[in-house]
Amino acid sequence: MAKAFDTSLLHPRNWMTWTGLGVLWLLVQLPYPLLYIIGSSLGRAARPFLKRREKIASRNLTLCFPEMNEQAKEKLIEQNFISLGMGLIETGMAWFWSDARVRKWFEVEGYDNLTKALAENKGVMVVGVHFMSLELGGRTMGLCRPMMATYRPHNSPLMEWVQTKGRLRSNKAMIDRRNLRGLVSALKDKEAVWFAPDQDYGPKGSVFAPFFSVPQAATTNGTYVLSRLSGASLLTITMVRKANNRGYTLHISEALTDYPIEDEIKAATYMNKVIEKEILRAPEQYLWVHRRFKTRPAGEASLY
After folding, report:
1. Does a structural domain hold residue 230?
2. Is 4 within a domain?
3. 222 falls within a domain
4. What is the pLDDT along the chain (304 residues), one digit of tens a residue?
C-alpha cells in the first residue's frame, strides 16, 4: 500500500517537480501515435545535451559487441536515445493511464508459463531487465497478474510517493532491494516477485562473471541467494516496444529448470546468459547509458 499523502510534499521547493509532473500528465492524454512522435523527438533532441551518457553507451556497445562496426553502433546509439525519450513518455503512461487504455496497447506471449509456475505452489522469482519501457512493463505485468517488485527508494520524498503510487496501481507491493528478509518472506508466501539482476550494484554482494564479450562483469548474487533461501521458481518477463506505433509485447518465458544452484559463479554466468538473450530481443531499447562495468576486480583499471 502506498503511503498516505503528506502535505509537506506541497512545500514550495517541490513546485517545479509538481509542474513537471503536471506537464507529463497532460502530455500523456494525447493519442499514442502522437506520443510516439513526441517521445522519439525528445530522445533525439536530448542527445547533444547528454554527451556523457552517449559516451557510456558507446563504450558499453564496444565492450559487449567488439565485432560491431562504427556505422552499426552509431545507428544503435541513435535508436537508443529515441528509446530514452520514449522511456519518459512511457513512465507517464504507466503512472497516469487508465487500465483500459494500457490494455489496448499490449499483448502477452507465454502467459501460461506464469500460471504453470504459480500452480506449483511455491514462489516465483520474475527476472526482468532494464529496458527503457521498464515502468510501463511493470504496470502491464501487474494487469496480467498483480505481483510484488524490488526497487531502490527514490531520494526525493515527492518522487518516491508518486512512483510508488503509480506502480501500485496494478501491483501488490514494492520491496526495497536491500530487504533480503522481506524478499525471502514474500517468495515463501508463494508470491511472484519481480527483480532485475542486470545492473552493476557495486562489489558488495557481487561476483564476477562473463556478460556478452566482457569476461568479468560484476554480477549480483541476489538471484543465487534468493533461490537457495526460498526455493522459488525462476522465469523471465520482458516487455518490448513494437515497431511502427503498434504497441508492446510482454514476453513471459518458461520456468528456468536448469539454474545451477550449487555454485554462485556458475549461477551468475547462467543468469547473465539469460539476460543477454532477453536484451537481444530489442537491444536498441536497453539501458546502455548505465555504467554496467564500473566495478572491476581488484587491481584492474576502469573500463570507462
Report:
1. yes
2. no
3. yes
4. 567 788 999 999 999 999 999 999 999 999 999 999 999 999 999 999 999 999 999 999 999 999 999 999 999 999 999 999 999 999 999 999 999 999 999 999 999 999 999 999 899 999 999 999 999 999 999 999 999 999 988 999 999 999 999 999 999 999 998 898 999 999 999 999 999 999 999 999 999 999 999 999 999 999 999 999 999 999 999 999 998 788 999 999 999 999 998 899 999 999 999 999 999 999 999 999 999 999 999 989 999 9
Grid cell locating 187:
517468495
Work out how many domains the chain is built from and give that number: 1
Output b/e per residue, 53-84; b: 16+ Cβ within 10 A: bbebbbbbbebbeeeeeeeeeeebbebbbbbb
Q: Residue 54 in contact with residue 92, Cβ under 8 Å?
A: no
Closest CA to 286 of 74, 42, 81, 41: 81
For the full predicted model, state whether its pTM sits above 0.85.
yes
181 domain-assigned: yes
